[in-house]
Amino acid sequence: MKDVSDRKANRPRKENNSEFQQRVFAFRKGKFELDPLRLVQIRDAPWKGEPRLPDSEVHLAVNRKKAQVVDERGNLRVSQAEQKGLYQILECLPALRYRALDAQLNIQSVDSMGKAGALPDSSLRFGRIERSP
Question: Which of 19, 43, 86, 112 has the fewest CB atoms in 10 Å of its CB?
Fold first, then answer.
């Protein structure tokens, strides 16, 4: 990521994800048809593990300080998440189940479309891949 000028704050800042993609993939905001990532499709990855094994584990993530923090008066500081009792539920694959999901990646071919100005730049497209028998 590089620094860009923030017109509102009148100072440099790090570019955001959208600006980064537009710079790298040579398209501008509002021109979705020029974004090469629109040609990539990832199918849901259903569980393909053994039926007798659990397919996921649920963990909780809580934002807590490792050491107590006190303010200038010596009062204990509590994070906003702790004050509100907030936590995040994380659904995770159990350890060592690296082949438990079956996914599919599709890259759309645009060779037959031929709409000038409505496709990503040709240098940003994938080449044709021939399948072996």
Answer: 112
